[in-house]
Amino acid sequence: MIKELVERMLSGDRRAAARLITLVENDEEKAREIVGLIYPYTGKAYVIGVTGPPGAGKSTLLDKLIKVAREEGKVVGVIAIDPTSPFTGGALLGDRIRMQRHSTDPGVFIRSMATRGSLGGLAKATNDAIKVLDAYGCDVIFVETVGVGQVEVDIVKTADTVLLVTVPGLGDDVQAIKAGLMEIADVFVINKADREGADATYFELNLMLDLEKERWEKRGWRPPVVETVATTMKGIRELWRTVLEHRDFLERSGEIERKRKFRAEEEVRTIISGRIARMIGERLNEGELAELIDRIVRREVDPYSAADVVLEKTLGVKA
Ligand SMILES: Nc1nc2c(ncn2[C@@H]2O[C@H](COP(=O)(O)OP(=O)(O)O)[C@@H](O)[C@H]2O)c(=O)[nH]1
Ligand SMILES: [Mg+2]
Asked: Which domains does the chain carry?
């Protein structure tokens, strides 16, 4: 049944592709089988991560970038990740609406994924969904995440090019950017440049980048800062050009190889730790664990020694 679905997807059947994404998202065993079958057909798509605070205009921006990529004849995939927190509730619906006009275009495949509380599984599901879209024939795949949680950052940083979307009047955002998003951004986007303070933000971001000069010089790429108004198309073509320039840089410098190795390594490590955790879970005797935890609380055993006991009992490994 899966083999048939994969064949249909490879011959361009959209519904088969959608079905396969649902399967890799929800069923570990089937994901394994699917990835095994499609892997030889992957590796052609260019992956662009789009991250930034909720409401910055990421989906609106994507709607316009899809348009430009379509004009160039590219087949486009979009994976919009919705963290189901009260903070950003409803973002998923918003993403759909924002990109709706492309929903009848056979060259555009838009998919939303909810976190459903399992953030660890999300990175794996996203990676597998990217593979399905890649094998399906997408030339470009956009992955939209809200750049607030570590997992979302982890997801987006495996992309070939990472766009960090921010808005004028940074304030707290500057702190967030400094706190970890800075390193992963290949291009900074100041969206809503129609609002007051865009120039000040442009100046502020460039100043911040200048202070990090050593890092860029080593890398050979200083992230450009691009101003856009996603609602009117202003700056969108320039942004797309900048993305293509970054891709050229990655290819010329051989950096693309390094990125893809990094992605493969992260992926295999995630699979290994997930599998080990599951094995331990399956073999663990709940009663014994409860007893061990009581002993930790009574100070009869320390947490490290307790972990040693569990590892030895479940996996037979000695510390
Ligand atoms: N003024 C202005 N509003 C924008 C711009 N881009 C997006 N918006 C609006 O900002 C809101 C949030 O946009 P959305 O794309 O859903 O943001 P996301 O949460 O980052 O995906 C929507 O009401 C958009 O119409 C822009 O460049 N200028
Ligand atoms: Mg959005």
From this structure: 1-41 (no CATH), 42-253 (3.40.50.300)
